[in-house]
TrEMBL record, chain A:
<dbReference type="InterPro" id="IPR011060">
    <property type="entry name" value="RibuloseP-bd_barrel"/>
</dbReference>
<keyword id="KW-0822">Tryptophan biosynthesis</keyword>
<dbReference type="InterPro" id="IPR018204">
    <property type="entry name" value="Trp_synthase_alpha_AS"/>
</dbReference>
<dbReference type="GO" id="GO:0005829">
    <property type="term" value="C:cytosol"/>
</dbReference>
<dbReference type="InterPro" id="IPR013785">
    <property type="entry name" value="Aldolase_TIM"/>
</dbReference>
<dbReference type="Pfam" id="PF00290">
    <property type="entry name" value="Trp_syntA"/>
</dbReference>
<feature type="active site" description="Proton acceptor">
    <location>
        <position position="53"/>
    </location>
</feature>
<comment type="similarity">
    <text>Belongs to the TrpA family.</text>
</comment>
<keyword id="KW-0028">Amino-acid biosynthesis</keyword>
From TrEMBL, chain B:
<dbReference type="InterPro" id="IPR006653">
    <property type="entry name" value="Trp_synth_b_CS"/>
</dbReference>
<dbReference type="InterPro" id="IPR001926">
    <property type="entry name" value="TrpB-like_PALP"/>
</dbReference>
<keyword id="KW-0028">Amino-acid biosynthesis</keyword>
<protein>
    <recommendedName>
        <fullName>Tryptophan synthase beta chain</fullName>
        <ecNumber>4.2.1.20</ecNumber>
    </recommendedName>
</protein>
<comment type="pathway">
    <text>Amino-acid biosynthesis; L-tryptophan biosynthesis; L-tryptophan from chorismate: step 5/5.</text>
</comment>
<keyword id="KW-0456">Lyase</keyword>
<dbReference type="InterPro" id="IPR023026">
    <property type="entry name" value="Trp_synth_beta/beta-like"/>
</dbReference>
<comment type="similarity">
    <text>Belongs to the TrpB family.</text>
</comment>
<dbReference type="GO" id="GO:0004834">
    <property type="term" value="F:tryptophan synthase activity"/>
</dbReference>
Length: 276, 415
């Protein structure tokens, strides 16, 4: 069974045709439990997200701030395995029909087997992968597997990326390109700086973006005002830590956590529709 | 004029331009760090070609560090090593007390060349942290050291030394609260502050160019030792031994002997409570290929690619990864790696102290234990070279507790 790259493309195209940014939500699998994570992700999509990223919790989340580190830790202590991450993708996609991406550090994929991971993710209805510590130079093995299984390869670009690298990265990527709004790890920030707008402008100037590859912005976005600000210049807005926080704050009351996630998704969905 | 102490590996050998030692190495880093890592690589290439860089580093290595370091024969210790002759390469006599200063001074000069004003580093036992804090004091650089919370406790003396030198020491409370987690936190800092910050990486792991760059700054160890032992013993040793955590002092010793086929290269890994107990950090003995901290090498991991928590009595060896060049040397069969338990290392530490009046670091004591074992295998004809990578002052609290040396203890000698 082929993966859902085309579904991802059509959801992003639909948002563009509605003259709004797409809303992408992130939560780690297995947090607070595997089933609880599935419920929260479904609520995120019901509340207004267009696309979901399922995080594969890792023992060494070098690119994550304290909020996602804590969630990964809870998930791993709960015993989450790669098969549970795949199950999460399957159940969220089946329940909602939405595009579901996996966001993971590279070592778990390398260890599980690149071909096996791509095949299992596609079979579960996944739309692709974001691999934040796999630079384009090391990505050929993955890209071949992804292409064969109909999966997107979403690369991250950063404010420090020079123009020639932006061209190379966007050329190799598919689905969309993830523009990191700032130099730093995941986590909520007071404001989204000018760096993000500059990076998006430079990314848009690449041939691949000119041909239509969407540019979505993540890192630091946590509230509707920031979502609206980013939506003015990006094709999509990615929110992670703010959703994780809702679940962490509702410690011991899963229903309240899921309700918090749904409410936040609703507010952010309004934000990404305010472009003027 | 070529340099006497800064002796980079000749061109045309490993790693490849992409940073690969056979199947190991590479550059698995976030896009945000690519520009910074490439800048380090480019600056290092320029520095290698610049006689002024070598001259400045040579001057520091002689007049600040105290190179060349001595080679000491230890006959009373060697009586317990099957009667083989044993020579110690005395990196413990370097300024700051370990081999770490070799690399730190080189990278501190690179930091200045790149125009960066802030340095961050990870440390396990605190030796790399102390060396880094020292160089930052010398060059007037801002300095932040990340250290696992467990290590700040068991190496409290080195925490005080770093603070005395003006560095900020941050105790890392995530994960296993040891070296691996200190590196994670240093990477997080680097991503956020890369404009003005150099990550002064302390071992031959990490993304390219660090495995080659750190190795080059430590090659002086083996180059000196090879010349010294030829003079003193009249022949090459049967084996060169060193402890391996990330592997920097070992690669520094081994490299000068790579072409000497008769010299066995033996890395002594931290066997902790024994490799069968699961409580160890013997990455090459028990690990599998994977990616940790920016390169492919052997790592301790589960079937899902989660890094497992290592254990060693030695904070400097308590790491679930290993430099990629060691992985390569293991796979091509040029070097061998043996696990040494906590207890074997501690017994060797006490033996060297009492037979030779030299208190080694617990890290280096792993290599001494390896020498005792190998000497017994080789017998009186054997000739061994051991890298004494650091001195043991920092370990006196651990050793005193281990052997019951504090007033009121009466368990001395029981262990």
């Amino acid at each position: 069974m082929a993966g859902n790259l085309e579904l991802l493309n059509s959801v992003l195209a639909q948002a563009r045709s509605e003259n709004r940014a797409a809303l992408v939500g992130y939560l780690p699998a297995g947090f607070p439990t595997v089933d609880g994570g599935v419920q929260a992700m479904i609520a995120m999509l019901d509340g207004g997200c267009d696309i979901v990223e399922v995080g594969l919790p890792h023992s060494d989340p070098v690119l994550d701030g304290p909020v996602i580190q804590t969630a990964d830790d809870i998930a791993l202590r709960g015993g989450v395995k790669i098969v549970d991450v795949i199950r999460t993708v399957r159940e969220v996609h089946t329940a909602t029909g939405a595009p579901v991406l996996c966001m993971t550090y590279w070592n778990p994929v390398d260890r599980y087997g690149v071909e096996r991971f791509a095949a299992d993710l596609a079979e579960a209805g996944g739309a692709g992968c974001i691999l934040p510590d796999l630079p384009v130079e090391e990505s050929e093995v993955w890209r071949k597997a992804a292409e064969q299984h109909g999966l997107a390869t979403v690369f991250v670009v950063a404010p420090s990326s020079r123009d020639e690298r932006l061209a190379k990265i966007t050329e190799a990527g598919s689905g969309f390109v993830y523009a990191a709004s700032l130099m730093g790890v995941t986590g909520t920030r007071e404001s989204v700086g000018r760096e993000a707008q500059d990076l998006v402008a430079r990314t848009r100037a690449t041939p691949a973006a000119q041909r239509g590859l969407p540019v979505c912005v993540g890192l630091g976005v946590s509230n509707p005002e920031q979502a609206a600000e980013v939506a003015r210049f990006a094709d999509g807005v990615i929110v992670g830590s703010a959703f994780v926080k809702r679940l962490l704050e509702a410690d011991g009351d899963p229903a309240a956590g899921v309700a918090g996630v749904r409410a936040l998704a609703g507010q952010l969905a309004e934000g990404v529709r305010k472009r003027d | 004029m070529s340099s006497e102490f800064f002796i980079p590996d000749p061109e045309g050998r490993v790693p490849s331009p992409e940073g690969y030692f056979g199947a190991f190495g590479g550059k698995f880093i976030p896009e945000a760090l690519v520009a910074a890592v490439d800048e380090v690589a480019a600056e290092y290439e320029k520095a290698k070609a610049d006689p002024a860089f070598a001259a400045e580093l040579d001057d520091l290595l002689v007049n600040y560090t105290g190179r060349p370091s001595a080679l000491t024969e230890v006959p009373r210790f060697a009586e317990q090593a099957g009667g083989a002759r044993v020579f110690l390469k005395r990196e413990d006599l370097n300024h700051t007390g370990s081999h770490k200063i070799n690399n730190v001074l080189g990278q501190a000069l690179l930091t200045k060349r790149m125009g960066k004003t802030r340095v961050i580093a990870e440390t396990g036992a605190g030796q790399h942290g102390v060396a880094t804090a020292t160089a930052c004091a010398l060059f007037g650089l801002e300095c932040t050291i990340y250290m696992g919370e467990i290590d700040t406790q068991r190496q409290a003396l080195n925490v005080a030394r770093m603070r005395m030198l003006g560095a900020e020491v941050i105790a890392v409370k995530s994960g296993s609260r040891t070296l691996k987690d200190a590196i994670n936190e240093a990477f997080r800092d680097w991503v956020a502050n890369v404009d003005r910050t150099h990550y002064l990486f302390g071992t031959v792991a990490g993304p390219h160019p660090f495995p080659a760059l750190v190795r080059d700054f430590h090659r002086v160890i083996g180059v000196e030792a090879r010349r010294q032992i030829l003079q003193r013993a009249g022949r090459l040793p049967d084996a060169a031994l060193a402890c391996v955590g990330g592997g920097s002092n070992a690669i520094g010793l081994f490299h000068a002997f790579l072409g000497d086929d008769t010299v066995r290269l033996i890395g002594c890994e931290p066997g902790g409570h024994g490799v069968d107990t699961g409580e160890h950090a013997a990455t090459l003995t028990e690990g599998t290929p994977g990616i940790l901290h920016g390169s492919r090498s052997y790592v301790l991991q589960d079937e899902d690619g989660q890094i497992t928590e290592p254990y060693s009595i030695s904070a400097g060896l308590d790491y679930p990864g290993i430099g990629p060049e060691h992985a390569y040397l293991k796979d091509v069969g040029r070097a061998e790696y043996r696990a040494v338990t906590d207890d074997e290392a501690m017994q060797a530490l006490r033996l060297l102290s009492r037979t030779e009046g030299i208190i080694p670091a617990i890290e280096s004591a792993h290599a001494l234990a390896g020498a005792l074992e190998l000497g017994r295998e080789l017998g009186p004809e054997g000739l061994l070279l051991v890298n004494l990578s650091g001195r043991g002052d920092k370990d006196m609290d651990t050793a005193a507790r281990y052997f019951g040396l504090y007033d009121g203890d009466n368990s001395e000698g029981e262990k």
